[in-house]
């Protein structure tokens, strides 16, 4: 049974991500955890250190969170009724990323599915700060859904790689699990700077060939483009439904999102984005 965590701030963006997850895994037996992590707008240090309930300050916030979770649950059961799916709601006094890390660890979560932006949803920003922190700190595959994306079956997946990763089961199993649900083609895109592959890169490419042997896949190689350009150009040529990257230290993923501003790299994402951490809680 798949265990999927759905964080929500009750925004339209988070509802869109929830509806995507319910449709993506509609033929799978799943347990969904619908999570709202809340902190009162103003609180003192002693309020956090001692029990919030002792002050009674969190009660109204908690009651509101529980009510909205129940509203979302009712809406899910009405719009996406599915006997294969069970749903548990969680309202927790904590910061969002800390709570996600804890739930992922304790519940052995398989995927976190979140929106790309929060309730404020600034158009110019590719990822909200919470989404970036989830990518960086949560050791579990994360699927981020753009706020205006309507569900499409992931028939064409784009997987850019520099072949610098010694691929392990926990890197590739989350990809295989999703693509095996659909008639999916995996497009493995190597962006080089005109150099031949090293021996270790060839070995890593060979691992991918073995993993994807029962999946329709194509290897692509482009040179003299940077990674954002290569991804954008590929999306223009092919109808991509899902972008996948492994968040490996010193990889181009890290450079792409955490060392440049989005405006500088000119990268636009209009499809769901699956980010796989280099390490997981389960390894």
TrEMBL record:
It comes from the Bacteria. Residues 1-146 form the UspA domain. CDD domains: USP-like. Pfam families: Usp. InterPro entries: Universal_stress_UspA, UspA. Transmembrane segments: none annotated. Coiled coil: none annotated. Belongs to the universal stress protein A family. This is Universal stress protein. It comes from Flavivirga rizhaonensis.
């Amino acid at each position: 049974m798949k265990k999927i965590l759905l964080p929500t701030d009750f925004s339209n963006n988070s509802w869109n991500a929830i509806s995507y997850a319910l449709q993506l895994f509609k033929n799978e037996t799943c347990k969904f955890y619908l999570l709202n992590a809340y902190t009162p707008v103003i609180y003192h240090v002693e309020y956090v250190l001692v029990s919030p309930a002792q002050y009674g300050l969190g009660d109204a916030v908690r009651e509101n969170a529980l009510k909205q979770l129940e509203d979302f649950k009712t809406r899910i059961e009405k719009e996406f009724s599915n006997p294969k799916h069970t749903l548990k709601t969680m309202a927790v006094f904590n910061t969002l990323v800390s709570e996600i890390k804890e739930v992922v660890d304790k519940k052995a979560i398989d995927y976190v599915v979140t929106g790309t932006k929060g309730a404020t949803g600034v158009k110019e920003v590719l990822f909200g700060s919470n989404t970036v922190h989830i990518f960086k700190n949560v050791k579990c595959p994360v699927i981020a859904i753009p706020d205006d994306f309507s569900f499409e079956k992931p028939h064409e997946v784009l997987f850019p790689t520099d072949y610098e990763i010694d691929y392990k089961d926990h890197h590739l199993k989350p990809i295989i699990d999703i693509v095996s649900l659909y008639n999916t083609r995996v497009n493995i895109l190597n962006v080089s700077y005109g150099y031949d592959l090293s021996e270790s890169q060839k070995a890593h490419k060979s691992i991918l060939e073995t993993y994807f042997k029962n999946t329709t896949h194509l290897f692509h190689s482009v040179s003299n483009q940077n990674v954002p350009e290569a991804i954008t150009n590929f999306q223009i040529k092919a109808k991509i439904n899902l972008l996948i990257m492994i968040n490996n230290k010193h990889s181009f993923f890290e450079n792409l999102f955490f060392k440049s501003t989005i405006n500088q790299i000119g990268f636009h994402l209009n499809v769901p984005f699956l980010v796989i951490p280099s390490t997981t809680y389960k390894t």
